[in-house]
Amino acid sequence: MIANARMYAVAAPVGQVWRALLTYVGERAGVAWAYVEHAAPAPLSALWARPDCGCVFMCGFPFVSAGSRHRLLAAPVPSLPRYADRPAYFTEFIVRDDAAFTTLEAAFGGRLACMLPESNSGYNAPRHYLMAKAAASAGTLFRPTAAPTPTPRQVIDAVIRGEAEVGVVDSYVLDLLRMHAPALMAQVRTVAVTPASPIPPLVASPLTDDDTVVRVRAVLLDLHLDPACTGWLAQLRLARFAQVSAQDYDVLACYASEADQAGFTLTGARGAKESRA
Known about the structure:
- The chain folds into two domains: about 130 residues, D-Maltodextrin-Binding Protein, domain 2 (3-Layer(aba) Sandwich); about 100 residues, Periplasmic binding protein-like II (D-Maltodextrin-Binding Protein, domain 2), CATH 3.40.190.
- Helix content is about 35%, strand content about 20%.
- The protein has a six-stranded mixed sheet with strand order 2-1-3-12-4-13.
């Protein structure tokens, strides 16, 4: 079996902490798994399709929209006060620190760097948020970037390089980078934040047996009580892990359905009609 934290291994030091923490979880649970990197540009969908997933982060939108049978283990609870001790996160709309924009509305009509349609924080949640701000006849509020930006770091880099006026990024990703890559984050600032969404959970393959799921989940839920994990959790800006249910993620499918019915796209398409995948 494998463990992986690709979604939140946003900088080298963070990746090392995730490797140490998830290796420890496997040892405590008595599960033999290897920590694998699966670094970009390898698609996350290929990781989630592996039958040997023992403990990997999965975006909540593909989890619910694809009718996934992955076994839910637990979800992270970020430690900063704005998360209110919930397994939740936001999408932040970022601009360059020297940009003239002080509000998101001032940037309408510009280029928006976003992730793939399978991403909640990088596509689905911001699309739903912008739909509420658009006039009834508006099909979009932003233009696309010249090239795709399928990872959070590519979104951030596109904004910093001036290839996009605005970018959309997972708030927990940004909080980790603010701690571990402050020089990078000093080059951008946030102009708007979406309402909270359920944060990506740790999951196991649908083939994982019940006993393994129960043992791994129990270890994850008790990590905040384990003195050996205090430093790791602090470096990951986590308070604890929480139990979640499949129904918690249904709201993400509602976001997509409402935007689809309204005919609203996150950006204008690059030469063809934008669609969800």
